Amino acid sequence: MHNTIYKTKNLALLLLSLITVFTATAQAPTQKKLDGIIAKVDNHVILRSELEFSYLQYLAQNKQQPSEQNEPLKCEILKSMVQEKLLLARAEIDSVVVEEAAVTGELNRRIEYLASQVGGTERLEQYYKKSIKQLRDELRRTVRNQMVSEKMQRDITEKVTVTPKEVRRYFNQIPADSLPYFSSEVQLSHIVKYAEVSRQQKQAARQQLEALRERIVAGEDFATLAREYSQDPGSAEAGGELGFFKKKELVPEYEAAALRLEPGQMSNVIESMFGFHLIQMIERKGQEFNTRHILIKPATARVDVQDAIAALDSVRTLIVNDSISFAKAAKDFSDDKNTKDNGGTLMSRMTGSSYIPMDEVEPGIFFVIDTMKVGDVSKPVTFTTPDGREAARIIQLRYKSSPHLANLRDDYQKIAAAALAQKRDKAVDEWFRKNIDTVFIEIDPDYDRCKVLDLTQ
Question: Which residues form the PpiC domain (predicted)?
Answer without folding.
Answer: 183-283, 286-381
